[in-house]
Amino acid sequence: MSGLINALNIGKSSLLDGQRAIEVVGNNISNVNTEGYSRQVPVFTDFPTLNMNGFMVGRGSKIDVLDREYNNFLAKMMQEKSAALGEEDAKSTALDEMERIVSISENGLSGSIDNFFGAWQDLTGDPGSRVNRDLVLQSGERLAQDFQSTVSELTKLSESMNTMLQSRVDDLNLSIREVASLNLRISTIESTGQPALADRDKRDLLLQKITSLVGGTNTENAAGMASIFLPNGLPLVSDATAMPVLAERVGDTLQISLDLGSHKYELNAERVGGEMRGLMYLRDEFIPEKVADLDKLANGIITEVNALHRAGTGLDGNTERDFFAPLAEEAGAAAMIRMNLGNYREVAAGDSGAPGDNTNALRLSALGTARVMDGSETFVGYYARIAGDVGVEASRNKLALAGNRDALTQVANLRDNTVGVSLEEEMISLIKFQKSFEASAKYLSTVDEVMSQLLAIRG
User: Fold this and answer.
1) CA–CA gap between residue 2 and residue 222 (Å, rounded)
2) How would you class 413 by CB atoms within 10 Å of its CB: exposed for 0-12, middle for 13-18, buried for 19 or more?
């Protein structure tokens, strides 16, 4: 009789295992479209055998634990590609805008430079003409305004980086706090012997998001807690503690720092990765470099034009007069360039001041094609190099963005094929567990019938 009771227990456990396995398959199917979901698999183990009158009798099986399909290599690759994509994606819109700002066109700064020296060329044909002299003044004013406008737009673009960085910092702090909270939850659950499968999926998504925002690496300890480190090794999350990232206004910029309690570490493009690195690079390096180039160009025009203009004489007989307001230093020249003349009679077209004297106008018109910038480039050529640098960086960004997006897609597809839910596989598992459940039910029915017959005989 004890053997039949053991048989009933075997059938019961087999029936319950089949039911639970079907539930696991159903959960997988229902999460086929859930981002970051990892396929769950029931792990079957057999009960220890029992010695009954010298015979080793099996006692059935049980689902020991639910396992989570996971590939650490693919998870790290996802994070790495997310960081690379985040950096290039953060640059993309700003670089497109920079291309527009410094584009070479008739209505842009390059056109204004050409028009300015073209106005001096027109003046050589009729140096006493008030109309031509007014055109020189107007083209000089337009040139100054275009310099100011270009720098102003670049400055506004740089300031927009601060707004975007503030948004990324807020998002980052929220994410690392969630990871710290999940660390504690996962550790608590798994210390009881139960798997925290859904929480681990959620944490993996957050880790990928964090690397997209700020780059870095992460490790997991024996308790199941993940620690996150910035690219330079500074900790963002340690066990159940998140280190806050601070964004504080310092003058016209937003200073980002990591608060470790005893010390604050300033974060720059060299200490972070992902989107924040891309934004910091544009704000702190690339845009200031282009503004400095524009300053150099503006200062070159001011210096060369003023030097020739001071040597000439206006219709009023005065000499030693600057065309543009002189500046003390090169830095800020593009934003501060201003006209110094206000009257057509002050334009020094010649050396003598006579209405027909065009000697100085000839020298100034020739300045437009002179290679005075670094001794090798014209003013327009130097500006074309600035625009070319932006264009090259924008093109490189587009190629890198497309390449990183494709790479991430490929890794994501590989991850889905490896640890994600396949409806075909789940259908096969469903049929297998269904047949197992039916066989267990038939087995129990058979054992019950045998017991009934045995009780009837004994009665």
Assistant:
1) 44
2) exposed
| Of 104-118, 119-133, 186-200, 443-457, minimum mean pLDDT range | 443-457
108: confidence class by pLDDT, cuts 50, 70, 90: confident
Q: What's the rounded Cα separation, in Å, for the pair 335 and 235?
A: 41
| Cβ count near 197 (within 10 Å) | 20
Q: Within 10 Å of residue 133's Cβ, how many Cβ atoms? A: 24
The amino acid sitting at 54 is G
Q: What angle do CA 376, 96, 245 make, to 5 degrees?
A: 110
Query: Which residue in 76, 77, 47 sits closest to 60, CA to CA?
Result: 47
3-state secondary structure of 115: helix
* Chain position carrying tokens 């004013």: 141
Is-contact 162 254, C-beta < 8 A? yes
> In this structure, how many other beta carbons lie within 10 angstroms of the beta carbon of residue 401?
18
Specify whether the backbone of 52 is left (phi greater than 0), alpha (psi in -120 to 50) or beta: beta
| Helix %, strand %, coil % of the chain (to 5) | 60, 15, 25
Distance between CA atoms of residues 101 and 205, nearest Å: 37
Type of residue numbered 315: L
83 vs 210: CA distance, rounded Å: 8
> pLDDT-derived band of residue 50, with 50, 70 and 90 as boundaries?
low
Residue, of 187 and 6, whose pLDDT is higher: 187
**Does an H or E element contain 45, and which?**
strand 40-46
Sequence letter at residue 100: R
Confidence of residue 305 (pLDDT cuts 50, 70, 90): very high
- Tell me if residue 261 falls in helix, strand or coil: coil
Mean pLDDT of 118-133: 94
Exposure of 200 in the CB half-sphere (CA atoms within 13 A): 23
Rounded Cα–Cα distance for residues 126 and 361 (Å): 10
- Residue range 204-213: average pLDDT? 94
Contact at 8 Å (CB) between 172 and 319? no
- d(CA 120, CA 426) in angstroms, rounded, equals 80
Q: Which pTM does this prediction carry?
A: 0.87
Q: Quote the CA–CA distance of 90 and 279 in Å, as a whole number.
A: 6
What sign does the dihedral 71-73-76-81 (CA atoms) show? negative
